[in-house]
Automatic annotation (TrEMBL):
The lineage of its organism: Eukaryota, Fungi, Dikarya, Basidiomycota, Agaricomycotina. Residues 30-82 form the F-box domain. It comes from Lentinula raphanica. This is F-box domain-containing protein. InterPro entries: F-box_dom, LRR_dom_sf.
Length: 575
């Protein structure tokens, strides 16, 4: 749960085996790599450095295709020149039928469409004959972006025979033609986010029209409506999409924050026989019909994540009762007056292995309703995530959590959960004592944690501004955390050595940046010190998050080391 798996996740795809990337043609190259069995070559190829791949591509035709199978396994399409060149090449591949031509399209397994600035111009398109031909064939009035999207639709439909996953991350209107191309593509995992979808879209024919045989789907779209009266057609489009994917869909993530009206299936019931993981993030439900279709006729759901502000969702869960196969439940968000409905659902599903409550709850709710259920009935629970709507976590609650000996993953948080303010003053000595009995812990997360600093009395050392103000303790010299080159530069800036060509404002800005860099190193060192104490306490601990750092625990023989996975701090948020 600390590294919880999204109901629809994009895992990095291995390159295709060379025989598939080479479209079944016999290997003619004498290069030593091709003496390896195909399966081993597939494992070795991704580890070839990018510069070496470029050199390898110059050896012969087979080496070139092997390099392509790695270089183009995952592609991000933007409006830059490299993307325009790639799209031009893929268009050309759709038009050529030369038997022995080598192609890029079969090598692409994951396709990300990220169309932001800069916008296209007609002058840029003229450098790409196939793209420009699309532009010339479009009816007036059309713009270069229309030609780009039309070409993209053609490529998705015809040029990517081994495509596994497609991620749309562009605030661009998806036309019926483009969505139809996505439907006809080979992708089995599709994520559509940030897109604008018109309510008049007509892609799926109710009577025997094209099915969309995908396994994983993410929907996070914004709807364009000519008038408010068209809001009911949103339900029609969503019903068409879900009906088309229902026979094969295994995981669905549906985010509804930008949906302007409540949705319903009406009298229609759509069955999802293979659905195993479901995330409903603030989808406004008009009634029980959608929830019933997704959850009432399927006893094989393993993972359920729910966030909603409507009464229909809360009441449905309260009445749904026991879900035999359910192992993981995440309560993302809910109005406080609906808490009782969700608690009834928790009481009915004591078989859970993972429980995540990402919204902050009052301490009394956690101590009198949530923890008693967890302690007495959740005998198989191995993963727990709780957030307190308070500035501290009560010792009584920590002592109960310390009795959950089967826990392998634990995520705790308190205080403000949004914005720059972090006002949970974490007390690691208290936590270490309370959690000491959890010998099976493998993953430990403390998010929104903050720390006390006794800094200079004229500086704001308040806990809630710990990360914002970056104040050093009064007994710490920030220059101790600078490199020799940085110290030399600082001395020049403040005039302690030979003067350099720098204005007062530039010198002041440089000093501020160097102090911030030094503070980050001091904070990271401090955080690693805390992480080291947990690593020594819990012999199975492999990973932790605190001080806004992802930290990996490495155990080499009798030594235990903690290292940051990335030098950049990240304010972790629940998925």
């Amino acid at each position: 749960m600390t590294r919880s798996i999204h109901p629809v996740s994009f895992q990095s795809h291995r390159p295709l085996t060379f025989d598939r990337a080479n479209r079944g043609r016999p290997i003619k190259s004498t290069f030593p790599l091709f003496r390896l069995p195909i399966e081993i070559l597939q494992d070795v190829a991704p580890h070839i450095p990018s510069l070496d791949l470029e050199t390898l591509a110059l050896v012969d035709r087979d080496c070139r295709q092997l390099a392509r199978s790695v270089q183009f396994s995952s592609v991000r399409l933007t409006y830059n020149d490299a993307s325009l060149g790639l799209l031009e090449t893929l268009l050309e591949e759709t038009q050529t039928h030369e038997e022995f031509s080598q192609t890029i399209g079969p090598c692409i397994r994951h396709f990300t469409i990220d169309l932001g600035l800069p916008k296209l111009t007609e002058a840029r398109l003229t450098r790409y004959p196939n793209l420009f031909a699309f532009y010339q064939r479009l009816p007036e009035p059309s713009c270069p972006q229309d030609a780009f999207l039309a070409a993209l639709a053609t490529v998705l439909s015809c040029s990517l025979p081994n495509l596994q996953s497609l991620a749309w991350q562009s605030r661009v209107v998806i036309s019926s033609e483009l969505l139809q191309a996505i439907v006809f593509s080979k992708a089995r995992t599709v994520a559509i986010s940030q897109a604008l979808v018109h309510t008049n879209m007509d892609v799926f024919d109710l009577y025997g029209g094209p099915r969309w045989p995908i396994e994983n789907l993410v929907l996070d779209t914004e709807w364009t409506m000519p008038s408010f009266e068209d809001s009911n057609s949103i339900t029609n489009v969503m019903t068409d999409i879900l009906r088309a994917v229902s026979p094969t869909l295994q995981r669905l993530s549906w985010r509804g924050l930008r949906c302007p009206s409540s949705v319903s299936f009406g009298r229609e019931k759509i069955i999802f026989p293979r659905l195993r993981a479901l995330r409903l993030d603030a989808v406004p439900m008009a009634d029980f019909t959608i929830l019933s279709s997704l959850l009432s006729f399927n006893d094989r759901i393993l993972s359920l994540e729910v966030s909603s502000t409507d009464r229909a969702t809360a009441e449905f869960l309260a009445s749904r009762g026991h879900m035999e196969a359910l192992e993981s439940f995440s309560w993302l968000n809910q109005r406080h007056y609906m808490e009782e409905d969700i608690i009834l659902f928790l009481e009915a599903n004591t078989q859970l292995r993972s429980l995540s409550i990402g919204q902050s709850l009052p301490p009394i709710t956690i101590e009198t309703r949530i923890l008693p259920i967890v302690k007495s009935d959740y005998l198989r629970l191995t993963s727990l995530h709780l957030v307190w709507d308070a500035l501290t976590i009560p010792d009584t609650a920590l002592s109960v959590i310390g009795t959950l000996h089967q826990l392998q993953r634990l995520w705790l948080s308190a205080g403000a959960q949004h914005g720059w303010c972090n006002n949970w003053k974490i007390e690691h000595d208290v936590l270490l004592r309370a959690l000491q009995p959890l010998h099976r812990l493998e993953s430990l997360t403390f998010s929104r944690d903050s720390y006390e600093v006794h800094g200079h009395p004229l500086l704001d050392s308040s806990i809630e501004k710990y990360y914002h103000n970056a104040v050093f303790p009064y007994d710490v010299n920030f220059q101790d955390y600078l490199t020799p080159d940085e110290r030399s530069l600082l001395e020049k800036a403040i005039g302690l050595a030979s003067y350099v060509d720098m204005t007062f404002e530039q010198a002041r800005s440089l000093q501020s940046r160097l102090m911030k860099a030094a503070w980050e190193r001091w904070h990271q060192q401090r955080t690693l010190g805390f992480a080291g104490m947990y690593a020594k306490m819990f012999a199975r601990l492999e990973w932790c998050y605190m001080g806004q750092y992802h930290i990996k625990v490495e155990r080499i023989e009798s030594r235990t080391c903690v290292v940051v996975e990335s030098p950049i701090r990240e304010n972790l948020k629940p998925l």
